[in-house]
Specification:
- With 414 residues, the protein is α/β, with parallel strands linked by helices.
- It is built from 13 helices and 17 strands.
- It has helices at 41-53, 64-83, 98-113, 132-141, 161-164, 187-197, 216-219, 244-247, 284-300, 302-320, 350-359, 372-378, 394-410, and strands spanning 22-23, 26-27, 29-30, 92-95, 119-123, 144-148, 169-175, 200-204, 223-227, 238-242, 260-263, 268-270, 326-329, 340-345, 362-363, 365-367, 383-387.
- The strands form five sheets. Strands 4-10-9-8-7-5-6 form a seven-stranded mixed sheet, with helices on both faces. It has a four-stranded antiparallel sheet with strand order 13-14-17-16, covered by helices on one side. The protein has a two-stranded antiparallel sheet with strand order 1-2.
- Helix 1 runs antiparallel to helix 9 and helix 2 crosses helix 9.
- Bound molecules: ligand 7TS.
- Ligand 7TS binds at residues 34-35, 97-99, 127, 129-130, 175, 179, 204, 206-207, 227, 365, 369-370.
């Protein structure tokens, strides 16, 4: 036990108004950042200022206000592009979130390029967002789904590629960081494997981009989807990054205004990338909030975000190990994991556990976390999950552990 980590980022907490509220008569201990993160005043203010001073529709007005709105929207795209080191802002498509990003690849690429006999390679730890869209596309195209298993220490088992990888595999889609186990995906290995058989790689980066430095040009993958709301930004917006070569192979999966070059009665042509994938009026204020979230994280530095998360996760794993009958599901090594810590406590149902924690003002998620196949593999119907972000402090872990001891007493765990 190395003791409490120094909470070097605790000073940030004043930026998050919600963190000084009370729940059930206790200060809120928000330990559900894998579901969504809280928002700093810098993000709230950017969105408020946009509506107060700049609001107009984008890419259509001939007047100054509309030009300013368009510049703010496109400025946000450039910030997001810089954040993941995209080769150009054009490679960033604004989406509604991770789910929409993955669906737009499944339906904009998969539907047009897959046929019977082809294979889509997924893994056993995927969120439903990176599973169900592929099931739908498999049903349409006749392609088959195959799964990479997990190792005994909860990592994607790349040794199993040997039996599964061949020319039939056209897509490898996998999570960059598991929302349940915390496991970091073997991106380089799977990217290389995909290239060797001419498959595309799709990274569900919902939990990855918010939690570690990401350089899309260095990763060697084709598509990467993430959302703003898990990285201090608003809900309703996310980004799909794709290499220009792959984006050119993608068909729009939504049609409407602003995505066309010309429209005839029976056929239309598309405008340039990325706007051909952004039909209709986009979430403009949300994009600006996303940009402000990126500024905020860049001011901290993503290396610092990652090391803070490692230290709070190390502390949580050490302290949770003190609770008898508690089982954590996920890799032990911090270099292989992020800050989502899922656990069960004896045979107490995770929902009951979450209710007892809530009575102490501690917010954790309980359930299958949109990963039913993974929970079946773990042979538990549900887990409780504590997850951390830049504002998480060791005192919250202490309160969690104390409340878990209390839960054991309440449920009479011997
Ligand atoms: N992929 C992963 C790995 C996720 O964790 C989530 C959301 C998604 C995709 C979907 O993101 P969305 O923003 O489009 O909904 N994960 C969670 C979670 O763990 N608890 O609530 C949402």
């Amino acid at each position: 036990m190395e003791g409490r980590p120094i909470s070097g980022l605790a000073r940030l907490r004043d930026d998050f108004p919600i963190l000084s509220t009370e729940m059930n008569g206790h200060p809120l201990a928000y330990l559900d950042s894998a579901a969504t993160t809280q928002k700093p005043v810098q993000v709230l203010d950017a969105m408020d200022a946009y509506y107060r001073t700049t609001n107009a529709n984008v890419h259509r007005g001939a007047y100054l206000l509309a030009t300013r709105a368009t510049e703010a929207y496109e400025g946000a795209r450039a910030k997001v592009a810089g954040f993941v080191n995209a080769a150009s802002p054009q490679e960033i498509v604004f989406t509604r979130g991770t789910t929409t990003g993955i669906n737009s690849i499944a339906f904009g690429w998969g539907l047009y390029h897959l046929r019977e006999g082809d294979r889509i390679l997924l893994t056993m730890l995927e969120h439903h967002a990176n599973l169900v869209p592929w099931q739908l596309v498999a049903r349409h195209t006749g392609a088959e789904l195959v799964y990479l298993p997990l190792t005994s220490d909860y990592l994607i088992d790349t040794a199993a590629l040997e039996g599964l990888l061949d020319e039939r595999v056209k897509v490898i889609a996998f999570s960059g960081m598991s929302n349940v186990l915390g496991s970091i995906g073997p991106i380089e290995v799977l990217g290389e494997a995909a290239r060797s058989v001419g498959a595309i790689t799709v990274v569900d980066a919902a939990q990855m981009v918010p939690h570690m430095p990401v350089d899309v040009q260095a990763l060697g993958v084709d598509f990467l989807a993430f959302g703003a709301h898990k990285m201090l930004g608003p809900t309703g917006i996310g980004a799909l990054w794709g290499s220009m070569e792959r984006l050119e192979q993608l068909e729009p999966s939504e049609g409407g205004g602003e995505m066309i070059r010309d429209v005839g009665l029976y056929e239309s042509t598309w405008t340039d990338i990325p706007h051909r994938f952004e039909a209709g009026t986009p979430p403009i204020a949300e994009a600006i909030g996303f940009g402000a979230a990126v500024d905020y994280l860049e001011a901290i530095g993503m290396e610092v975000v990652r090391s803070h998360e490692e230290s709070i996760t190390r502390y949580a794993l050490e302290r949770l190990a003190e609770v008898p009958d508690l089982r954590v599901y996920g890799p032990d090594h911090l270099s292989q994991r992020g800050g989502a810590v899922s656990f069960t406590l004896a045979d107490i149902h995770p929902h009951d556990l979450a209710t007892i924690l809530d009575q102490q003002g501690i917010a954790v998620r309980a359930g299958h976390h949109c990963t039913r196949p993974l929970h079946r593999l773990l042979e538990v119907p549900a887990t409780a999950r504590a997850s951390f972000y830049v504002y998480s402090i060791p005192e919250e872990v202490d309160r969690l552990v104390a409340a878990l001891h209390e839960a054991r007493r309440i449920f009479g765990v011997a």
